[in-house]
Amino acid sequence: MTAIGTLATHHVGLNVTDLDRSLAFYGEVLGFETLGEGKEGDSRFAFLGQDGRLILTLWQQAGDAYAPGRAGLHHLAFEAESLDHVRAAEAALTTRGATFAHEGVVAHHEGAASGGIFFHDPDGTRLEISVPRGAEGAEAPSGSAPTCGFF
């Protein structure tokens, strides 16, 4: 253990091009509540969470959509309570017109019990909603390689 102790993820911040559009997506579709909003010059921001706990911050300061070929965030993964919750999210995302990397629930790798759905937010940021077990028998699009690595 280092001198700074054990670290845990507190929240994740994402740059977005349109805060209102992203608030609708993350709030109405994924169920995050807006804990606070603000403005600094021409930039706006919002704090999103669940049960009063901060999980995600959105910063309207990007001029372009997410670029998967650039260094930085690869994807953001959320863990759901059950496979039924993953499927409910998939239905809500489908209704909203979200783009998916794979059709339906897929396994994290060949033979894994864990799996989920892989999709993109309005700015193209890669997102995942998965469960640690319950996806037995689901196909693995990338064989033995991690599914979350190649979308």
Explain briefly what this protein structure is.
The chain is an alpha/beta fold.
Structure commentary:
The chain is α/β, with parallel strands linked by helices and 151 residues long. The termini are far apart. It has two helices and eight strands; from the N terminus they run βαββββαβββ. The strands form two sheets. A four-stranded mixed beta sheet has the order 1-4-3-2, covered by helices on one side. Strands 5-8-7-6 form a four-stranded mixed beta sheet, with helices on one face. The protein is globular, with a radius of gyration of 16 Å.
Write the layout of secondary structure elements.
Blueprint (H helix, E strand, L loop, with lengths): L11 E5 L2 H11 L3 E8 L2 E8 L2 E8 L15 E4 L3 H14 L9 E2 L7 E6 L5 E6 L20
Parallel strand pairs: 1-4, 5-8
Antiparallel strand pairs: 2-3, 3-4, 6-7, 7-8
Q: Largest beta sheet, briefly?
A: 4 strands, mixed
Unreliable parts: none
Structural class: alpha/beta
Number of strands: 8
Question: How many helix segments?
Answer: 2
Order of helices and strands: EHEEEEHEEE
Task: Calculate the terminal CA-CA distance, rounded to whole Å.
Answer: 34 Å
Helical percentage: 10-25%
Features:
31% strand, four-stranded mixed beta sheet, 151 residues, 8 strands
